[in-house]
Write a structure and sequence with these properties.
Four copies of one chain form a homotetramer.
Chain A (H helix, E strand, L loop, with lengths): L10 H22 L15 H36 L10 H23 L4 H28 L6 H22 L13 H13 L1
């Protein structure tokens, strides 16, 4: 660390704004997911079969919505836990955080691509790679925070969280080559990785 | 409660962020409702009849917008009142809260489905079931908060609020089988349930 | 005022959340306006004439965007000034505030309707009536706050602000019957009304 | 400065709300960018060639998304640094700030226009002019803050930031006349200008 942090008068407010801005981007991205589900217009005549069929056509979109909601929720929790450890505002956090947010803000597109073409190799790979890149950028943010404040000893848990998401997203990416339709279950292994890595830390 | 809460240094900020994130999702979901109303393009020539007809075609969408705005507003107030009783941040609130938010974020879709196909059995049932599931998830959140902090005695009011929304949504769901076009008036009984349940508590 | 206000432990946080939620709805509504401007797809070949024509077709949408941005900004400032005078949270403010927000959240639709059909009587009347209803709901909110806290003497300025918006919107509505294409200039008289009414107060 | 600032009881809260509202508009605008990327619907049959081609068609939209994300991020940082220096709320900041936000909120449209017609002169000029106007409005906001509080000596850095964005946007605008497809690299010179101008200040 050769450069001095550019501390400003409004340091506390600055950190709060950074956190707030990030939270807002997470909240907007997670709520925009629903706009990508196309609303069916049914025939005017009462026709239950048409409605059931329309719902069946939408099942992939519902699945993609639910999955991405949980995934963004998980990413947000990692960010939440991480920022708890940042006590002083440092402008050098800005860009790593912004790149992470860019990946989050891109999720509604990947989600819609997955939901519109569920079970296909290309869109599944694209979706899982989006997750992997997001997880990597999250891991970089953890590293940046550790570098700026090396005394922070409690960051182990957050680093494990970020590593677990990376492992889950990596597994999903690998699974795409075997079974694209089921590759997203890689993300379901995240709680397992968290527990495993956490045990390693305690030893 | 066998597990210890993972209290962190930034406990107060953590709770604030959780509340903030929830508020943002509510605010975005409630404001996105309007995007589901299709904007009519009228003929260039002045033609009042065409405009009046276009407005008449939009009446179901206007109705669905207004109804869901009030419903999400009601859900937000329940959440608002509930979170007032949470004084310390507990990470175990995260996922129950996230599932509740997922149901809220899904509302714009159900609303658009209802508005595009008003009076039909299928979409009305789908909409009312969305409300019922959201109300149930809200009730579960109340229960979770009660479990984490059993000394909280003022939660009775909030539990009643959540129960009332559940009763209203349940009544709407039942009414769908009788008269889908008017089933949403079940939600209008919520203030009645609140008053009734509140009276029971005072006795 | 026969009912007691339901003061809660988290009174200060409650008020903050109410203000925050309102701000978020204003911010989202004002930023969603841009989504209603349709993006033209030009021919691949370089064709400046096609681009200029596309821009000319969009002029009404640009106008509606700018107008509604300023109008929602004006409404937000009124709300901002108003809430400065609310010092204790009162749940009875909830619904009047929610109805006001509903009118604000509806603005993107009215704006898109105006932008897609500029100069037509019907859409202009619809837009101006939306403004008038919003202004009326804002005035009701002022009255509600005055009723809940009658000692508040500084509310005169805010009441004048709300009255001025109402006068401007009313004038626009009347002008629609004379010249729909130019009726929105009624809103431009708001600063004039503010000055006039303010002078009356000082006397 | 002949007029007295209209200081109100809730001065600190007022400033906080202004900052919050601005942050929210930035966060929403930056997250809405993704909605302008059209989601391709691929043929049901596994067809990797179709997917690769669809991605290639989307490349301009991806580029425009990434570029505008970074640009809005940059604008937000300028605003962030600027508002750190505002310690007391002054209503006269309202409208200059609102105009700046209007330009920010317009960015998703310019971005979509650029992404849908990349390499064409007209849309590139339109996009770069949007940046230039936004930068100018940002510079005006800096000037307004300086005028309201002339003792603020640390504003030099923020003025330089705003000037650098203006120089970058101006260069991009000029480059449009030479090579529209590559004109956006003008924005990439911003860090250079910041460094140059900063050196000038220190001398």
């Amino acid at each position: 660390m050769t450069k001095q942090p550019h501390t400003s008068a409004g340091g506390a407010l600055s950190l709060e704004r950074l956190v707030f801005f990030s939270d807002a981007v997470f909240a907007i991205a997670i709520t925009l997911l629903v706009l990508e589900i196309e609303v069916p217009h049914l025939p005017r005549v009462q026709d239950s079969a048409a409605f059931v069929e329309a719902l069946r056509d939408l099942t992939p979109s519902f699945f993609a919505f639910g999955l991405s909601f949980l995934v963004i929720g998980r990413f947000w929790m990692t960010h939440h836990g991480l920022m708890d450890h940042v006590t002083t505002y440092d402008p050098r956090l800005m860009w790593p955080n912004m790149l992470y947010l860019m990946a989050i803000a891109f999720m509604p597109f990947s989600t819609a691509l997955l939901g519109s073409n569920l079970g296909q190799f290309g869109p599944a790979l694209f979706y899982n790679l989006t997750l992997l890149v997001t997880a990597l950028l999250g891991r970089l943010l953890v590293r940046k925070i550790e570098a700026l404040d090396p005394t922070s000893e409690t960051l182990g848990r957050e680093a494990n969280g970020a590593n677990s998401v990376m492992l889950g997203a990596g597994l999903s990416t690998l699974l795409t080559f075997v079974a694209p339709a089921f590759s997203q279950i890689g993300m379901a292994t995240i709680p397992l990785w968290i527990r495993l890595l956490q045990r390693g830390v305690r030893k």
